[in-house]
UniProtKB/TrEMBL annotation:
<keyword id="KW-0472">Membrane</keyword>
<comment type="similarity">
    <text>Belongs to the SLC29A/ENT transporter (TC 2.A.57) family.</text>
</comment>
<keyword id="KW-0813">Transport</keyword>
<dbReference type="InterPro" id="IPR002259">
    <property type="entry name" value="Eqnu_transpt"/>
</dbReference>
<keyword id="KW-1133">Transmembrane helix</keyword>
<keyword id="KW-0812">Transmembrane</keyword>
<feature type="transmembrane region" description="Helical">
    <location>
        <begin position="91"/>
        <end position="113"/>
    </location>
</feature>
<protein>
    <submittedName>
        <fullName>Uncharacterized protein</fullName>
    </submittedName>
</protein>
<dbReference type="GO" id="GO:0015862">
    <property type="term" value="P:uridine transmembrane transport"/>
</dbReference>
<dbReference type="GO" id="GO:0035364">
    <property type="term" value="P:thymine transport"/>
</dbReference>
<dbReference type="GO" id="GO:0035344">
    <property type="term" value="P:hypoxanthine transport"/>
</dbReference>
<feature type="transmembrane region" description="Helical">
    <location>
        <begin position="59"/>
        <end position="85"/>
    </location>
</feature>
<dbReference type="Pfam" id="PF01733">
    <property type="entry name" value="Nucleoside_tran"/>
</dbReference>
<dbReference type="GO" id="GO:0015854">
    <property type="term" value="P:guanine transport"/>
</dbReference>
<feature type="transmembrane region" description="Helical">
    <location>
        <begin position="27"/>
        <end position="47"/>
    </location>
</feature>
<dbReference type="GO" id="GO:0005337">
    <property type="term" value="F:nucleoside transmembrane transporter activity"/>
</dbReference>
<dbReference type="GO" id="GO:0015853">
    <property type="term" value="P:adenine transport"/>
</dbReference>
């Protein structure tokens, strides 16, 4: 799973250095956010669909790949925007990135500590993520 999450970040962060010359920043940010939201909704909906565990795992890994792909484009674009502002804003942006990492780690720890069945744990993770969107 770590490979599926970090490899697209690396590849598309590199690709983003070429992409910024051809695609406007507003489009990159908008399409990245839209596709991340759509893929997240797909994954959240698949928790309720009865399917084989191997199939669910494969689909989830594919969505992780694509979410991280669009996340890399989004993150690179946002760093480009923040780079136009004074250094104070860069510091705040990096602090926000760190806080998001802490939130993700805490959610993972809470999921591990709950020790419930896999399906309710997946649903709890999705509900926790959705509560962050409200």
């Amino acid at each position: 799973m770590a490979l599926l999450s970090q490899l697209p970040l690396l590849l598309f962060t590199l690709l983003n250095s070429f992409l910024y010359q051809r695609v406007r920043e507003r489009l990159r940010v908008a399409f990245s956010l839209i596709f991340i939201l759509l893929l997240f909704c797909l994954t959240a909906a698949l928790v309720q669909v009865p399917m084989q565990p191997d199939t669910f795992f494969s689909v989830t890994m594919a969505t992780i790949w694509f979410i991280n792909t669009f996340g890399a484009v989004l993150q690179g674009s946002l760093f480009g925007v923040v780079g136009l502002f004074p250094p104070r804003y860069s510091t705040l942006f990096m602090s926000g990135q760190g806080l998001a990492g802490i939130f993700a780690a805490l959610a993972m720890l809470l999921s591990i500590l709950s020790k419930s069945q896999p399906e309710p744990t997946l649903m709890t993770d999705k509900e926790l993520s959705l509560s962050g969107l409200k």
